[in-house]
Amino acid sequence: MMTLEEAEHCFPQINTSCRKHSRPQSESMIISILMSFISLITVVLNLLVIVSISHFRQLHTPTNLLLLSLAVSDFLVGLFVMPFQILLIEPCWFLGALVCVLFYFLTFIIVTASIVNMVLISVDRYVAICDPLRYSTRITQKRVKICVLLCWIYCVFLSFLFLSDNLKKPGRYNSCYGQCVINISGVADLILGFIIPVSTIVILYLRVFVVAVSQARAMRSHITAVKLQSSVTVTVKKSELKAARTLGVVVAVFLMCYCPYYGFSLSGSDIVLGSSTDLFIVFLVFFNSSLNPVIYALFYPWFRKSVKIILTLEILRHSSHQAHIL
Question: Pseudo-torsion of CA 308, 311, 317, 320, nearest 10°?
């Protein structure tokens, strides 16, 4: 009969096996159910964003292509990262050292892609607000597609750079059998994965905010003689300002979700998923992928219209891709 001490190990038959956490089974079950539900919501909502932007021709704009790339990374977080993260609630990893490294390798690509996509979105809004006359010539669909491709290539490169030692010898940093631990240079990850991208995002959006405020004041000023061309320009600026405000909310939520995790790294603390606090901090990073589609639903009428067409199966009509969404 198995003793109590053996039952506390991941692999009772192996002396070097890792010990299980003493977390109550009810607590572990609640955490698993909650994360599974949020994972499902993340997949469904981001899939709706992907289908909407991909299917409807009116939504094929440079800005929406960046939102599409962001939705793909968020979709992969819900489909791949969150389910595997449930397995890491306990230290017992039953899938082997190689799968452990591959999991972190793909997770690093996906999460870094979300950060770099935020940088691209900030650049797009910066040009649209601060240099609107040359926006259509500087930000084209072709250039945006190239930037999105380079974004994902850059994320793969960083993953190989940071995890090359782990890929050469999986499990080399495990302290006990059944553990899933990798080693990443905290300083390099902090600088390349957070400080530089976030600094870029904050600087660009501060500039956008200053210009947007000045333009809003100009629009409210009493101008008696306005030419037709000027009125068209004002209308365009209003739409750009609205898009900037919406994407500003996306960026703000992104910062709130990511800053606690990297704050720990900046303070020199280690994050271990055995602690409920650390588990919440890591989960908050992934929860950002669930919030982005909710923001779209609240602020983008085109997203609500496209979701209605998708859910009512009108999307199956032959000419549905030409529907008036905007």
Answer: 40
Distance between start and end Cα atoms, the chain: 68
The structure tokens listed for 168 are: 């050469």
251: burial class by Cβ within 10 Å (0-12, 13-18, 19+)? buried
Residue-number span of the structural domain to which 61 is assigned: 28-218+228-322
Walking along the chain (326 residues) 10 residues at a time, the average pLDDT comes out as 54 73 72 85 92 91 91 92 76 79 88 89 86 87 94 90 80 76 70 82 82 68 48 51 70 81 63 58 82 81 88 85 79
State how many domains the chain has: 1
- Cα torsion 148, 149, 150, 151: sign: positive
* Structural domain includes residue 10: no
Q: Is residue 252 part of a domain?
A: yes
For residue 63, give Cα distances in angstroms to 8, 28, 202, 248: 52, 41, 18, 13
The 3-state DSSP class for residue 255 equals helix
Burial of 250 (0-12, 13-18, 19+ CB in 10 A): buried
- Which CATH number belongs to the domain containing residue 52 in this structure? 1.20.1070.10
Which residues 6+ apart lie within 8 Å of 139 measured at CB? 62, 124, 127, 128
pTM of this structure: 0.83
Residue 20 lies in a domain: no
Distance CA 223, CA 89 (A): 62
Closest CA to 177 of 115, 82, 92, 242: 92
Structural domain contains residue 8: no
